[in-house]
Amino acid sequence: MLRHLVKAVFGIVREATGYARTALVERDVTTRDRRRAEAVLGFLLHMGPIYIKLGQVAATRSDLLGPDWVNTLRTLQDRTPHMSRSDTRRAVERELGGPLESVFPTFDLEPVASASVAQVHVAELPDGRKVAVKLVKDGVPGEIEKSLRAMSTLLRLVDRCSSRARQLDVSRRFDEVARLLRPQADMEQEARQQQRIGDNFSGHAYVRVPAVQHELVTPRMLVMEFVDGIPGKDADRVGISRRQLAQRMQDTVNTMLYLHGLSHGDPHPGNVMFTPAGEIVLLDFGVTAELSEDEKWGLSSFYYACIRKEWQVATERFTRFFVHAGPELIARRAEYDTDMTRTLTFHFDISSNRWSTVSYFNDVNEVLRKYSSRYTANFTKVELVFLSGEGFASQVDPEIDIWANARKFTDRYSPYMSAEVEARFQDVFSQQMPTSLQLRERAAGVLVAPTHIDRYFFPSVFPVFVHRASGGRVSDFDGNEYLDLCGGYGPHLLGYGHPAVRAALVEGIEGGLVNGMGHPREVELAELLVDAFPAAERALLCNSGTEAVLFAVRMCRGQRRRHKVAKFEGHYHGFSDQGMVSSWFRFAGDRDAPEPIAGSLGSDPATVHDTLVLQYGDVAGLDRLREHADDLACVIVEPMPTSVVALNTPFLAALRRACTELGVPLVFDEVVSGFRVAYGGVQVMTGIEPDLTCLGKVIGGGLPCGAVVGRAGLIGMAKSSQDPFSDYENRIFAGGTLSGNSLTCAAGVAVLRHLKAHPELYRQLDDHTRRLAALLSRAAHDRGIACRVKARNSIFSVTFSHNGPELYRDRMTGSNFKATIALAYYMRKHGVYLPELHSFLISAAHTLDDLDEIAHAFAKSLDEMLADHLFVT
Ligand code: PLP
Q1: What is the helix (H) or strand (E) element at residue 788, kind and residue range?
Q2: How many angstroms separate the alpha carbon of residue 91 from the centre of ligand 1?
């Protein structure tokens, strides 16, 4: 370290003398700045790799340095020496542990590129494949460590002596940069990040990440597929327009930040190549930026507020998610708010058509400095990504409207359609279904929403008001008929107004409506339910799926005398506080160790806190179940989660084994899947039996209904012992005025009897599901649209994404919501009713011709959506 400090001092003296000779006579500030920058540049080159790297990173910090500094230091990207041929051979053989030729029959010892830390060679594998070999330069890792330590010591000294340095928090900022730089020479770490980012882009229309040759990766050498691309600075040689290329570049960066939450850390032209067809090849993953679910949410919600010109909200969100508030900010919050709001207004509103990422970040930093505050460490990285990526996009096409282009991402949680598209729909629907639009206005005066519930982001912008519903179709008051794929969100498996159900209802009405007293239909429905599930001995009837879950959880809590509930991320169990924890819309924590988060304002925080959130399909994650078993009342799961339409039988078997071993009751929520995927449900299909099953939807034949079925022991928790004192201590209470009423039970019995008598309906539904899924996938594929259709047993999920989301959090954050929402309206225009942003369902009433009609409407919708620029291309 001492030698290093002497070298540093010598370098400083040498450059300072040169600087003094020329700059002292210089009066002009700009020229003086450039001279200073050149002196520092000379010093960095003199000091070696890590200083060069630091200079490169500093060159991206236009928030800290003026333009002359930035431009001068940028030249470091091209001026880096490489190892001699013999040193290179020695280094490769050291990494391989044998002669170079044993692995690479040909290896060009002259590098094709040389950066501060590593140099890149082209080689060939024995099977003839061409690879790029990235080799860390000799001595660099040691140099990095020594230099970082020496610099850190120096800066701490400076910190002590200079109040200005303390105010700028120089020492701590350096530590942040040092954290970025340390792993630079770790090729194993880089290979892992490259693989992860590559996986995120697998199947993407135009982003490529070279495949890693993992078996040849060592701590100092990374071998990957060789891509013979066009250097990032030569955009002219690419066969698509500069405008499109620039948009692709910006979209690539936004996809990584907003959707994947894992981004290349410095996408400047030196780290990107193009193919002649306009594909973008990302290289060099030494620095990456990773955003938590919370930060992704913060980023979207901040920019969304900016779009809506809600500057106060934007300021609050930005500060909450991305700022370490210093004492000045806390003491003078109102003033800070005014300053930050003014800055945001200026950039997003007043000069948004002259958007400059650099000056935006400069101004934001200025405000933060004024209040002795700073970004969070992660936002520092995000800023670097935006600066490099958007800077690069602007270089490719100086005319690019960065801000307009970003809207695909920034407002993707919203029901926003471009004003033009929305106006067009307004026109179309006021012609097509004027009565529905009138009813929509009337409803707005008295109802929360035209369709009785208003769910954050399942908007009913153009709702259909139904006049009649029959079979697989509904019609409105203006004479339009729609093929219906909503199925009332689940109950209408047989289609609307099935003759068996109608007859049962007529008979039920004639018998008078009975509730709160015994009647045979209730017994009959319970018999059918108990008979359908091998693991069931008793049933308890209620009015909805939500109620069924409430009862099941209460039964388990009562029996186990524990209150904590384990559940799975993205599984919705009705609208209770417990049922909605981490169920939709928002997630928290790591993907393999999610943290509970409330599904709605007004939820009881204790309920949320006392929920253990697991990941469906993650067998290793069941260890967390074991850790918490002693506090758990039960585990509840959607055995076939409908939001992502997945069924993982081995996982369910592992979960069953774990619950049995731990003595924790397992509850299957089959509110959707019950009697839809098979007579019974997923448990009948898989043979995996829960302790309790929650039901709803289909079992009520279209009327409000729910049920819990299971072994007599657990269900018996709701049965009185005829000793009120013992009941209070040992039993749970189950109420519900209309539970098991005669009309609901009559409809339910009719549906279940029909399904039981016609097992062929399930085979038909499966065939139809496969057929429609294939038709939809083909329509998207033929148009080059990234679209995943997941479908099983009459349930469909369509996402516009290059990746098939395995986890619900990926579906929620990884797809083009705007297109999915808009799809519902395009389909409506073409006579198909699709629920907005929701899984959709086919019924037994849909014919083969209906499926063709749906596929045809889908194809027409996609064409129009392409024309309306709803897809990221
Ligand atoms: N469980 C699941 C899996 C659901 O999908 C739903 C509703 O969609 C419920 C429970 C709640 O059922 P309900 O809306 O009848 O209360």
Answers
A1: strand 788-792
A2: 61
* 3-class state of residue 117 by DSSP: coil
Identify the residues whose C-beta falls under 6 Å from ligand 1: 489, 544-546, 549, 572-574, 638, 669, 671-672, 696
Ligand 1 midpoint to CA 296 (Å): 28
Query: Helix, strand or coil for residue 690?
Result: coil
CA of 641 to the centre of ligand 1 (A): 12
CA 665 to centroid of ligand 1, rounded, Å:
20
Ligand 1 atom, smallest distance to 673 CA? 3
Positions of the chain with pLDDT under 50: 23-24, 26, 63
Pairing of strands 221-225, 130-136: antiparallel
> How far is residue 103's CA from residue 126's CA, in Å, rounded to a whole number?
7
Distance from Cα 667 to the centre of ligand 1, integer Å: 14
* Contact present, 331 and 325 (Cβ < 8 Å): no
What does the buried/exposed string (b/e) look like for 31-50 if buried means 16 or more CB atoms within 10 Å of the residue's CB?
ebbbbbbbbbbebbbebbbb
Q: Which of 546, 670, 675, 703 to mutate to test the pocket of ligand 1 (most atoms within 8 A of CB)?
A: 546
Name the residue with the closest Cα to ligand 1, atom 5.
672
Per DSSP, the three-state class of 142 is helix
Digit-coded pLDDT (tens) for 630-666: 999 999 999 999 888 999 999 999 999 999 999 999 9
- Alpha carbon 173 to its chain centroid, in Å, reads 30
Separation of 544 CA from ligand 1 center, angstroms? 7
- Other C-beta atoms closer than 10 Å to the C-beta of 79 total 13
Q: Is 655 helix (H, G, I), strand (E, B) or coil?
A: helix
Question: What Cα–Cα distance (Å) separates residue 248 from each residue in 120, 255, 405, 505?
Answer: 26, 10, 10, 58
pLDDT tens digit string along 96-140?
Answer: 999 999 999 999 999 988 888 899 999 999 999 999 999 999 988
d(CA 114, CA 110): 10
Print burial letters for 611-646: b (CB count within 10 Å at least 16), e (below 16): bbbbbbbbeebbebbeebbeebbbbbbbbbbbbbbb
Cα–Cα distances (Å) from 732 to 134, 574, 765, in that order, read 66, 20, 39
The half-sphere exposure of 673 on its side-chain side, counting CA atoms within 13 A, is 28
Give the C-alpha separation, 837 to 797, whole Å.
9
pTM of the model: 0.87
CB 358 within 8 A of CB 387: yes
Edge-to-edge order in the sheet of strand 788-792: 788-792, 795-799, 840-841
What is the spatial distance between Cα 634 and Cα 330, in angstroms, rounded to a whole number? 44
> Which atom of ligand 1 has the smallest separation from the CA of 638?
3
Q: Which atom of ligand 1 is nearest to the CA of 571?
A: 3
**Could you give the CA distance from residue 542 to residue 551 in angstroms, rounded to a whole number?**
9
